[in-house]
Each structure stands twice: as structure tokens, then as C-alpha cells.
Amino acid sequence: MASTVQNITSTSHSQHNTEDMEISLIDISKVLYRRKKLIMLVIGIVVFAGMFYAFSKERVYEVETILLSSSVKDLQSINVLKNNVNSHDILEKFIATFQSRRLKKEFFEKFKVLESILGEVPKLNRDLVINGVFEKFADSFKISSDKDFVRIKLIGTDKQNIGIWLDGIVEMANKKTIQVLVDSLENEVDTEIKSLNLEMEVMRESYLRKRDDELAILNEALSIAKELGINKYSFNPSASYDSRTSAVNAASHNSPIFMKGTRVLKAEIKNLKQRKLNDIHIFGLRELQEKVARLEKTKIARADAIKNMKNNLRAVTVEQNGVQSTVLIKPNKRLYLILSLVVGVMLGVFCALIFEFIKNSKNIVRETKIISE
């Protein structure tokens, strides 16, 4: 019996709460309807303020260029002169070149970006202003890459020039990258020629030292021959003779050099001292000279190909120009409009309820005074 009474009581309470909720929602709806003009006014003010702010805010644009890796034709042109070069390597060189601060600084000065942004550079703190504008310009580039393409974005406020700047700096980076490749090709031959010339110089210096050693040995043998009175050559069948290394060769066969006699020794010493053409006596030198001659001819033959490469070769292929992709990114007018409407509705409803609350409070105070009187 008690449980039944509790159920009936709880049911009646829930019905009462539901009715109160319905009455409250109905009352709120009536209040909002009565205050619809106020709500619309608040929404209009907020939307107007939001859009005024959006239109008065500085416009920021974004341009984007998409670059593909080197074409097959360009790769073939490079590999004619240098093997084992692939498109990925060239793309990596291009990215490294593009990201360098030196390139951006050169472009910044050459294309007068500072004057385009500021118009007139202030005389006060001139260097500080220039560095600040440059840092902002350099940091405005965003680059992302994949295996076969690069995506570069530039953000700025100059709608007319921002696309031109992006395309211009891409072209500059392309030329710089090709220049690096060309320099490596030219240096490759020059480095090999220098290496061979250095090797030949070492061989000549080594030969001169050996010749000085041989002169010293012959002069010593001459002194001994004079002391012994040996004037003519005494034949020793165990020794062989080599005009280029006579002293050393004889010594290596344990045949005393002074046995050649003073006449032969003097003749050899005279010949060594008067010798002007040393190269013919240096073993392997002529082969190196031939290699250098071939490389020199190769260098001349490659000059035209390298010149053509500078003018026609591209490190990257432009899939989309920056000038063709200018997009307004700030302010986002649609976003400002939506936010203004949402805030306007919320603020309008709040104002309507506040005004209604104030009005009801005044009525309650008035009725209380009347009853008390």
C-alpha cells in the first residue's frame, strides 16, 4: 500500500515537472517572440561589426607552385656528360638551393621586394627595418616535397606581385641548381687534369733527385779512378750497362764504378749535367702526358654541350605557376559571417531574456508596493 502511494506521488511530481518545463519553454518562446525586434537588431549589429572587421582587416594571399622532377630528356642531356645522375638527386639539389638564405637575399635585393612592400624605406633604423622585412619575407615560403614533386607556397599581402615573386625565385633556384651541376662537370675534368699534372711533377722531382744521387756517385767514382790511375774502361762481364742508370746499375751488380775509368766517368758526368730533356728518361711520364692531352680535348668538346645545358636544361618542370594560383586566405569572410551570426543570435537571445527579466522585476516591485499600501 505504501509503495503504491509512493508511485502515485512520484508520478504526480514528474507530471508536474514536465508541465513546468513545458510552461517555461512556452514562456521563453513568447518572450523571444515579443523581443524579436531586439534580437534582430542585436544580430544585425554583431554581423555588421564582424563583416566591417573582416573587410577592414589586411588581406593575406597565398600562391602555390607545383614542380615536377627533371624530364627524361633533361636527364639524358646530363648523363651524356656525367653518368649515374637521377632525377631525385637533381630535385634534392634544387630544394637545398631554394632553401638557402643567400638565394632569398639575392632575390630580395634584385627584385626590389622591400620597395614593393614598404614603398619608401624609412631613414630611421633603416638596417633594422630592412632585416625585419627580409626575415618576414624569407619565412613566408613553405616547401613540401615528395619523391617526384615539390610544392612551394608563398604567403603575402601584395596580390599583384606575390605570384611573380614565387615564379621568379623558382626560376632563380633552377638556374642556380643547373649552375652547380655544370660547375661539377667542369671541375670533374679540371680535377683529373690537375691530379695528373701533380703526379707528373712529382715524377720529375723524383727523377732530379735520382740524377743528383747518380752525379754524386759518379763524382766519387771519378775521384777513386784518378787515385788508382784507371783511365780506360775495365770490362766486367758480370755487369750490364744502362745509359739511364749506369752508376746505380753497375753498383747493383757489385761492379766497382771507378773501373769504368776516368774518361767514361767524365763523359757520363758531363752528359748528366748538360741533359736538358729529362722527360724521355722518366718511365711512364709519356703515358700520363697523353692522358692529359685527351682530357684537354674532352674539355674543349664538352664546352659547347655545357653551354647548351646552361641555356636549355631545367632542374625541375613547372606543373603550376604561382601567378595562376592566387588565393585569398585571410580574412575568411564566410567564417566571419557564420561566427557573427552565431554570436549575434546568442547575444540577441541573452539581451531579450535580460530585458524581460528587468521588466518582470519592475512589475513585481510595483505590485508589491501596491499590495503593501
Structural features:
373 residues; alpha+beta; Bacterial polysaccharide co-polymerase-like; five-stranded antiparallel sheet; disordered N terminus
Summarize the structure.
This protein has 373 residues and is an alpha+beta fold. The chain contains twelve helices and five strands. Helix 8 packs antiparallel against helix 10 (261-274) and helix 8 runs antiparallel to helix 11.
**Amino- and carboxy-terminal Cα gap:** 50 Å
- Report low-confidence residues grouped into runs of 5 or more: 1-23, 237-253
Q: State the name of the first-level CATH class of the largest domain.
A: Alpha Beta
Helix content: over 70%
CATH topology of the largest domain: Bacterial polysaccharide co-polymerase-like
Which CATH architecture of the largest domain is right?
2-Layer Sandwich
Major pleated sheet: 5 strands, antiparallel
Structural class of the secondary elements? alpha+beta
Q: What would the average pLDDT be, to the nearest integer?
A: 78
Tell the overall outline.
rod-shaped
Count, helices: 12
